[in-house]
Queue: 2 jobs
Job 1
Amino acid sequence: MASHRKPRTTGQLVAGLRTSPAVGFTAAALTSVALMSQTATAAPAEPKPSLEEVQKKVDDLYRQAGVATQKYNAAQERTDEQRKHVDGLLDDVAKRTEKLNEARRELGSFAAAQYRTGGVSDTATLLLAEDPQEYFDQSQLMSRLTNRQKEAVDDYQTQQIETTKKREEATESLASLTESQADLKASKQDVQQKLSEARELLSELTAEEKARLAAIEKAKEEEARRKAEELARRQAEEERQRQEAQAEQEQAEQEQAEQEQAEQEAATGSGTGTGSDSGSTGSSSYATMAAKVIDFAEAQIGKPYVWGATGPESYDCSGLTQAAWKTAGVSLPRTTWDQVKVGTTVSVDNAEPGDLVFFYDDISHVGIYIGNGEMIHAPKPGANVRVESIYYMPIHSVVRPA
């Protein structure tokens, strides 16, 4: 007997509906196509930066850290000055407050004396008055006070006014100090962020990339050294020509003096035989100061760069130049931006030992010129004070501080 059951459909369920095998295959195919389409339109991964790009980024970050360091130095200097000012004001307020209390105690003694003699009200009210002078004007108490009491009242009023002014000044200075401290904190965080980014970029390099980067750095140093040698040759030639010209001038002056002496002897019929002695002026005062500066800087070679440091164990670039010139009796400002304004600007070719060489358009770095196209400077975090070609970085200007 034939079965009356309907054959079971072999289709798939799609979204709650039963479909045929053909429809299921079509849905799967569409899904596959959609996925392939999404994959094809997805944004491609960013290419890894080249080693040269990494080096430029790291150099830029170090330079930005140098700028932030100078901002930190400026904020630190401003904060130190304001802190000293605030401390002075607070000490002054404390002294004035003590004087005010002494004046108040003296007035109190007068009030107590009047109380014992039955004359309490006026002086007692005086001690509670906001403006003692106004009270006297209204009550005519001054006419009943002795000269000593009047002097005490005047002194009290003066001390009260001056103390109030100093307290207001101290409050304003404290607010300014708080603002400077906030700037200091922001600059510090900026330095740390730039240095952290630079270290992170370097840490991602492979051993091979680090070796290639070292080779690029070495080539950069060699090129800077070659330019320094060229400058040294030019300066040596200029010095030779200067000395020859000076010798010729001295010889001409000597011959002229001898001729004048001979003419004088012929006219008088006598000879003195003194001749002429131009002598030597010796080294200039600047050269003497520069020698002290360079001696100090050479003694710091090998000490670490630490941003914000002024010695004696570590330095940043402007901290080193400031400390070096201090040994020669010259007080330089703290930041490169202020140091570049001190003294006389000279050309690179005319640079002399002791001069300050500033770098980058933003004047964020400085070194001490020692001759032959070289300088002593505190380079950057992770490096020590060292001798290096002035052409290692783009030169902004050369300044003679004294």
Job 2
Amino acid sequence: MDQIIIHVDMDAFFASVEIRDNPALRGKPLIIGSLPQERGVVATCSYEARKYGIHSAMNIKEAYRLCPYGVYMHGSYEKYRAVSNQLHEIWNEYAAASEYIALDEAYLDVTDSAGSWERACEFAKAIKRRTMEEQGLTCSVGVAYSKTAAKTASEEKKPDGYFEIPTAENFVNLIIDRDVRVLYTVGAKTAEKLNRAGIRTVRDIRDHSEEILRRFGKQGQWMVQLAFGIDDRKVSPYKPEDAKSISREITFQENVEDFGLLEDVLLLLAISVERRAERIGLYGEGVTLKLTYTDMKSITRSRLIPSTRSAATIYETAVRLLGQVPRKPVRLVGAGIYHLTGENGRQMRIDDLLPEIQQQRQEALTAGLELLGQRYGLDFIGKLDKVFHGDTLYRTIEYMRKHRK
């Protein structure tokens, strides 16, 4: 049997969750992300807001210019993650394999679990129905023979849509006269290059396939294959060990010139990285420091280290890297680990053999948090769990920026 894949995409997920939980927001242009007076971007928005031209990743000040009377709010990301987990439980009942692209989007391989096209379509409709009945949210669902076609199908009738693309012929007939950007491998820059060559539609790609192969190489081969409806990629369940890095970064609302504050912030970011690494069972063999200056120039510095996920080690290494960069006003700082390995793949280090070293590092970390608490008048030791809940870390760091002595 050929593949049968369902693509599920929640409709304006974050905004829909907020509207579900607060019906007074229904029908209003709701923008979730930063507030208008803050630095930042739109995370998502309701369909009412999209009518004003607002979209994800738009600068929040541009969004406010387009829609000054919208409702702006920070996201409740822990809540969204919890809802996402509940949705995954529903979707996983139907799939032999699930590939989650984000909290609100997934490919589901139902080839074996459904056994037939008709049964797969029943699964898709059940997913839509149960998502509404059990979570009070709408989703758009596509059923198709391939991943590309399934995603195209889910977008065809958004929001709250349902669409089927059974064969490559059906897919080609649907998209052949559409803009080249209908193919997911074609971004804005690639589309611009194609347009300059007079290639504007999928039909043009098919008609100029040899030229595209010559000019775009491997990417061109993939474009041509998609234009002919060919996509044999499998649904690949995410495994934590597939991640290339674990990091956390913060954008300040005002530029920071005090590198002492940056060191304080790095301590909290290091703890955040440690917690995520512990949660998914990974270690890093390198530490990265990222800075973005006020001129929007970003730099990254890195250093290889013995395998670790210790916040103390991440912090110490990041601070050393910080001492090697130009001291100019900073708008963003981040820290992370890379070259990730699981427990079985990591090499033993001296800390593993000498527990007293681990204890010393933990004591140093606790002392650092106590010093932070004294400096800012905050209880980092007793309320550390709350600091990393939702966007509390962001608010805590902004408080630190305003009150550093």
